[in-house]
Amino acid sequence: MSIIEVKGVRKVFKKPVREPGLIGMFKTLFSFKYTKVEAVRDISFSLNKGEIVGYIGANGAGKSTTIKMMCGILTPTEGKITIDGFEPYNPKERKHVLNKLGVVFGQRTQLWWDLPLIESLVILKEIYDVTDKDYQERYQFLTKVLELDSFINQPVRTLSLGQRMRADLAASLIHNPKILFLDEPTIGLDVLVKDRMIEAIKEINQRYETTIVLTTHNMEDITDLCKRVIILDEGAILYDGPIKSIKTKFGDMRNISFLSKDQVNLEHLRNVLGTYAKIDEVDGYIHLTFDLSMISVNEVLKTILDLYRIEDIKIEENSLESIVKKIYETKQV
Which PANTHER family would you find in this protein's record (predicted)? Predict the structure, then answer.
């Protein structure tokens, strides 16, 4: 059974038409003129317990609007959303939904700014009516996986960005929610802290079977955490499915870069490989991009090694970022 159901959801905002200047501002107060902005257009999807799903799109695509509707902050103009069988925007059912949700926003905090982190966690324990036994079990686990010991007694205002993000993640999980919404959880973090966050999220998902919805512009986070991705554009879903399938659909691409001791004639290399590979030169390196359905890695490597003396070479898959960019450019999946 799905833990999140989104069916035919549409959200339209009314934006007042404002004339310029101070007079125009006062006229707006008494005017009934407005324009309609369709933020989300007829989207439908369902998420199962324990799934980690990447919910991605350009700025203004409708990601945050969808998340706010799933949290009950906004009410859909049309359609229906259920969280574990309850409507999050229904006043009578909202309390049931909030107990099942955890939310982390990259640029906002739910912690008390002047209190030590440990005090914030104790306050959240009381707010969510967590038993002493459950609190101790989760506190011990979260302190370990998120490495909170070194700053657990510091006021939140003294924490670095990386420390605060880990603290916010702990705060959102202290009541063991069934669903966790992560909005840019690794934004601004250095490589080491980011890796700790990613590993902690994986461990939390495995231990508690927490359903996780991840919105981010960092495609590496999506690749590291998610098997499924939902791509949103201008309020509509362009793609919903496994990451592996989307890579296959757009061609199983490979990128080979090499540095040669010999002078490389690009035209000659293009003639040898034909139209199967796109070839460019950047900072002395020769870059080849090709589809495995057209030519194999072995064939390309053999050609390169037969023609040139190689100093350095590397092989990479086509990144999810480049695939998503292609989807936005063509508007097709």
Answer: ABC TRANSPORTER ATP-BINDING PROTEIN, ABC-TRANSPORT PROTEIN, ATP-BINDING COMPONENT
